[in-house]
Amino acid sequence: MSGTLQGTGVSPGAGFGPARVMSRAAPPPPADVPHGGDAGAERDRALGALERVAADLQERGERAGGEGGKILQAQALMARDPGLSDEVAELVRAGKSAARAVYEGFGRYRSMLAEAGGYLGARVADLDDVRDRALAVLDGRPVADAVPAGAGPYVLVARDLAPADTALLSPDQVAAFVTEEGGPTSHTSIIARAMGVPAVVACPGATAVAPGTPVLADGSSGLVRLAPSAEEVAAARGAAAARRAALAAVTGPGATADGHAVPLLANIGGPQDLADALEHGAEGVGLYRTEFLFLGRAEAPSAEEQEAAYLEVLEAFPGGQVVVRTLDAGADKPLAFLPPPGEEPNPALGERGIRLLRLHPEVMETQLAALARAASRGTAVLRVMAPMVATAEEAALFAAACREAGLPSAGVMIEVPSAALRAADLAAEADFFSVGTNDLAQYAFAADRQVGALAALHDAWQPALLDLVALAAAGAAGRDRPCGVCGEAAGDPVLACVLVGLGAASLSMSAPALPAVRAALARHSREQCRLAARAARAAASPAQARDAAREHLPGLSELGL
């Protein structure tokens, strides 16, 4: 089998090896076969399978740690959802077999998530994985090792990849990921970047590749070569080695070639991510996702527990900055102790983030107080920001709450188009901005970020998205406020130069992306970055925008980027 396939590159680098094609396809349990008559025993069998899956996912998450661990912990919560258990039990009482009850129970939840779209819609693949694992337990099939066995390194090919399949892999085992579905912000992409493994997603025809076929996957261009020549493989490996050497040669704080400082920060979910951030040279934290401290709990963490978690991060970066996002609950992150106001047709567009905290001010007050106490004990500069802010009124409300708690710096996330369009108004109330390009793209293009067919709309090079970032940065600059970028776009070394040209004051990303971004900035002046930004915004498509920007960034070729 030879030829090429084209997908979307989401984790840079080139990986070569034999294809391992993963499939867990199994027919749905028959709908017309009832259980044997003992409803109680059948219910216990179904719920026991769910608990076994939850325990396995939780254990895997604890071993994996980092981004993969957090995703697995969230999947374990899905398997233990009380509403799902009640639904399954009711279906068994109605005569369904344990397997069919699990299948239909998940199906109803799946439909709700898919219709919701956005963050919720992005969880459909995770829900399917939990369901399939439970069905495998009930059928007596193995579920622990869905990845085909054999020595690596290999290229793992699949329709999509579940976090439980990939979170415990290492770059020594897998040379690259190639999937038919997914997008730049799917879990496959997130885990691949965290591992530093090349990845191509939204690649039609990937699962038709015959197992064992030699595959060369380029995680930058999205090109997948089948049965490449020895010369092509050697060239890719040589380029990868040269790239690693060039990146390793650039150290120190982030800055352009003419000395314009651009702090390079890490996105983290808690203290467990600090080692990776420090290893890759993070100057601080640009996005501390505090919701991971709250997930999976019947009650909110105490003020003392929160303070300890925040202080540990602050102490890791003496003199640096740590930007904390307050609890981003709602939508795909429901909390048992923080119920939504009622049934929402589309939770991703409902009461989430700052909107939900307005309904439960005691939760925000406790968190802000814990942050203020941690800041008084730590040596880093603490900045606190609110998620999903859409209006100046919401920005003012959050700023007032921060001042009341004794926090001197209150910022807002720019994640919805209204915030970018009226950035000057928000800057009058907030001390700083941080642009979340993942959600900003999702809401700007009305495109679920998990749907492979819509991956092009989540390309961070979309000129319309660059326009929104430019508006946010200009609005901040007009009030002498800094505007950083903490979305996945900041981790693209080429786009990082463009973001600086658009006015980004700092860049925050997954820790493994830091060296490439640092090296790209160090090769170019601020004026070159500005010229690249203007050229990208003047383009008509993402591909044209990237090509136009590269013309003004000649140092990229020296880095193999």
Give an overview of the whole structure.
β7 (214-218) and β8 (223-226) form a beta hairpin. This protein starts with a strand and ends with a helix. With 561 residues, the chain is of the alpha/beta class. The protein has helices at residues 39-64, 66-79, 82-93, 98-116, 118-121, 124-139, 163-166, 187-195, 230-248, 274-279, 303-316, 354-359, 361-377, 392-405, 417-421, 423-427, 437-445, 463-478, 493-502, 514-522, 526-538, 542-550, 556-559, and strands at 3-6, 8-11, 14-22, 154-158, 174-179, 199-201, 214-218, 223-226, 264-268, 285-289, 321-325, 381-386, 410-414, 432-435, 483-485, 507-509. It contains 23 helices and 16 strands. Strands 1-8-7-3-4-5-6-2 form an eight-stranded mixed beta sheet. The radius of gyration is 24 Å and the shape is globular.
What distinguishing features does this structure have?
eight-stranded mixed β-sheet; 23 helices; 561 residues; globular; 46% helix; eight-stranded parallel β-sheet; alpha/beta
Quick synopsis:
With 561 residues, the chain is α/β, with parallel strands linked by helices. The protein has helices at residues 39-64, 66-79, 82-93, 98-116, 118-121, 124-139, 163-166, 187-195, 230-248, 274-279, 303-316, 354-359, 361-377, 392-405, 417-421, 423-427, 437-445, 463-478, 493-502, 514-522, 526-538, 542-550, 556-559; strands at 3-6, 8-11, 14-22, 154-158, 174-179, 199-201, 214-218, 223-226, 264-268, 285-289, 321-325, 381-386, 410-414, 432-435, 483-485, 507-509. The radius of gyration is 24 Å and the shape is globular.
